[in-house]
Amino acid sequence: MLFNSLAFLGFMAVILVIYPRLTLRVQNVFLLAGNYFFYGYWDWRFNLLLLISTIISFWAGRRIQASSNPKHRRWFLAFGVITNLGILGFFKYFNFFVDSTAALLSTIGVQPHTPVLQVILPVGISFYTFQALGYIIDVYRGKFEAEKNFIRFALFLSFFPLLLAGPIERAKNLLPQMSRPRTMTKEKVLEGLNLVLLGFFKKVAIADSLGQIVESIFASPGEMSNGQLWTGVYAYTFQIYGDFSGYTDIARGIARILGFELMENFNAPYLSRNITEFWRRWHISLSSWLRDYLYIPLGGNRRGRARTYGNLVVTMLLAGLWHGAAWNFVLWGFLHGLYLAGHRVVLRGRQVELSWPGTLSGWAGDILKTVFTFHLVAVSWVLFKCSDLATAWTYLRGLFVGFDLSELRFAVVFAGGLMIALDIAQTYFRTHTWLTERKWSKISMVKFSVAQIMLISVLSAAIAHIQTVMPFIYFQF
Amino acid sequence: MKTSKFRSLLWRASVMLLVAVPLTVLWGELFTRILLPQNLDSKMDIYAVDPVIGFIYQPGARAFEKGREYNVLYEINRVGLRDRDYGPKGKQDFRVLLLGDSFAASHGLAVEDSLSRQMEKALQTAVDRDGMPIKIEVINAAVGGYSPYNYWKAYQRWAPVVRPDVIIVGLSPDDHDCSNEDCTYIIKDGALLGMIRKGEDPPVAQGRSVKEIRKWLSWNSQFYVLLRNFIYYNDLVGQISRKALAKEMQRNQLPRFLTPQPQEMERAWAKTFAYLRQLRIDAANDAVEMIVIPIPSKVEIDPMEYRRVLDGSGLSPDQLDIHQPLRQITLNSKKEGIPLLDPSAAIRQRHTEVPCYFVYDGHWIAEGIRTAADSIAMQWRTLGLRPWNKAFLKVENRSGEALPQISGHVDAH
Prior knowledge:
- The structure holds 2 protein chains of 2 kinds.
- Chain A has helices at residues 6-18, 24-40, 44-66, 70-107, 125-140, 150-158, 160-163, 171-179, 186-218, 226-257, 275-281, 284-298, 305-323, 327-347, 362-385, 389-399, 410-431, 433-437, 441-464.
- The relative contact order of chain A is 0.10.
- The longest helix of chain A has 38 residues, at 70-107.
- By secondary structure, chain A is mainly alpha-helical.
- In chain B, α4 (148-162) runs parallel beside α8.
- Chain B contains 13 helices and 10 strands.
- Chain B has helices at residues 2-35, 102-105, 115-129, 148-162, 210-220, 222-233, 235-252, 263-285, 298-301, 303-313, 324-336, 344-351, 366-383; strands spanning 47-50, 54-57, 62-66, 71-75, 93-100, 135-140, 166-171, 184-188, 191-196, 289-294.
- Classes of the chains: A mainly alpha, B alpha/beta.
- The interface between A and B is medium-sized, with 23 and 22 residues.
């Protein structure tokens, strides 16, 4: 069920009425049942896969913890990793690999008989699989003790707020919360509701409104003018951000209401001054996961410059593949890998936080760098959005032929401006905590007015879009 | 202490509301205009006061009428009819003047789908088939909101302009109501705002009424239109309002279906028939033939609609005679010798195949009108009415009774 649906409202109402009245152990069981109900609402068969992954990961963790023989530990690690990746690979990538292999063979004159399988893609499989893998690897590395209680572990892997689109939680952050007593306090509930409202504002009011513009332009890019194509790029750039960060805010808000703290997944990514900084601010749970479980094991930046660039490209290639079983996603990842490697080249061994070598500095330079980085990312989203490479190529070609931004729609500028303003405000309030700690009536009035504004925006957009319920973009991953 | 704390809280809450609410509304308007643009209602400022009928369309006016299920253009010709411009009548022209209310005027439909155009097409096909060198013109003088009193007045207004050969009176389900006789219409900037019945005091001007404010908002505020459309046009809300409409139907429309008929209904119909008689006399004096077409309501055609009304009324089926109005019109027409062309059977049959009425609005739609027009043309030809038969049917008071007085407005010709 979608967060922005009546069914979910009913589901949450039941949870919120019963949950606070339960003891810790019963809360865990109740939440676990709720998680499986939530997931099974999409398709009851998804629960079987989740349960299999849970059992395998729990068992692998326990065996790794219990074994002192390094060889056995590696065997259990491999078993846990391969089976989880195998499940993910089959359900997400089977048809992709079969079709790609067949296409490759046909170029050399071989016409293979390809098996046709209607493989359903379980919602959220990429997220909980990575979460499970992170757990198993952390246990193997000795960074975390294997969970002894199956209920707690199952709850960790199936926690409904983050089950469908993350964040990809680390065991050391979320698992201990399953054993600690949790209470729904007034402050937490208010904070949670604020986050939920913010999330809905970003998703329903901003992202879904931009979605109408995006669909109309990306449907037939060959017939669009340069200005319309740029409108589409900017609109999608803010749509995907509003959609994904909105979902995360809702997930974190719901978790907070229930007494859980989830990690932050976005930190004003479009205010990044360079691409490396962008990947520290965008989908933080995935980028940090890839850094810790892929990039660093590959050698990170410790094996010389060439190897560093290669590791970056490989990591981002797989990041692209994680997003979707299609060549446009792979190309998107490859492009970002090149971006990151290119930034390393520019830096020439210096620290990432430094400005460009001696020529541009200060706030003016930062703004220019931010705008440049923003456009690097925005253009790359074309590969992300287009359904195939040919369409993406048509779109990209049209972007760089005959610049004409006179057709840029004010709606996109307005929506983008709102998102950036929100990010700036959040960044400011994060660093000026004394403002939020004060109980001045003026602050209350500002907060109340802002909440009203967000609420009316969400309701208006929900009413306007009532005939077309737009799903969260990241559900497809 | 507690009182002062409460007062302080109340004060802060009031200030917050005073600041936040207007800000929210302003923001709602800005947000809607930029990201969720809505189509504002167009002003139906197409009306003008008329000394004969009461009100007519303004010549040359143009506006879109939007409703739950339609969005149609109203283009008014040079004389004040929702029709094409007509030149002087030629020798081969056979003109039919259509009088009636919103049903005959084909409310909610484009003019190409209207009853006048469809009848023109059907009649022309019939005369062409018989090899008659006649050009049929059916002129639409029907206007939503008219009653049989207005039909009579409309004849006086348009006959000298149009010079018809035949007039058709489309009698709709609520034509028993002639309570608007001799009233004054309130028209402001072309918008029809209301009417003052004879003997009523005019409303005291107390600033803008709620209705005027709502109209102004629907013309200027996209945020208002967004919310209004959600309430009025949403499917779920529409279903609820249909139930409410059924209640209104029970209050306003059911009496004409009740058996035995209440006395006030009998009196109302008598008045209607008196106006029709006067209309016929006036037309006959001009050598113009009159034909009556009873237009069935949805409840008379759609079994589900009938069921809904019956269930909502709390009455038993033998207390409701859904065909009573048609029977009365038919009896009266027979008594007065007025040709009656009834399309009900054809519409009823067609409605079993495709819808002939709007879902929420009670008016008929293009399919119903087309079916009616074909049926009317066929009956017209079968009965041998003009132009097939040039003989003029003489008007007589066949019953021998004196014509009832109609509030002093009947001019003897």
